[in-house]
Amino acid sequence: MAQQAPNISPIVIFFASIFTSNMILSNFLGMCSYLSVSSEFKTANGLGKAVVVVLVITNTVNWFLNKYLIQPRNLEFLSFIIYIMVIAAIVQILEMALDRYLPDLHAKLGIFLPLITVNCAVLGATLFQDIRNYNLPQTILFNLGSGLGWWMAISMLAAIKEKIAKNKMPRGLQGVGISFIITGIMALAFIGFSGIFTIQ
Fold it and tell me: Long-range contacts of range 92-96, CB-CB < 8 Å, 24 or more positions apart?
């Protein structure tokens, strides 16, 4: 028998997934591309938008597959493979679309665009929605909020790094070091939203 969806408003889930359960600043998922593509705001902004699109489309498709294929046929042992295949297919379609319509952004994102396939934030969101038994509206707003939260985090990091790049920094803080410090400060700032929205 299927478990009941939690009695949480989709709007609460939406805001919680942006602020109090942010994929980067609370769950630290998707850190590889977050750290690698955050040196230029324009590129980080483009990748953030791509992650939002991938999260919403792939995890909505995965919700339908889980509800109408995986659970009814007891195929839970294949769920990871099915989810990753869906993610890979959607990312491939998005990459071809960017190559065709936005070649400059496609060139700047380079290898990091196909790496969205293995971005653990995308698969992590799928597993979160399964574990929490979200219904369809909850799933869509959870993934939209998760994508927007990831986009906001990488855009803020890139904007801050662009500003401080003009200043001299100690050698040990250059590169990844300053990225971790900025991320830690942003995570501390987001702790201030704790208790306002919660989905755990």
Answer: 94/50, 94/53, 94/54
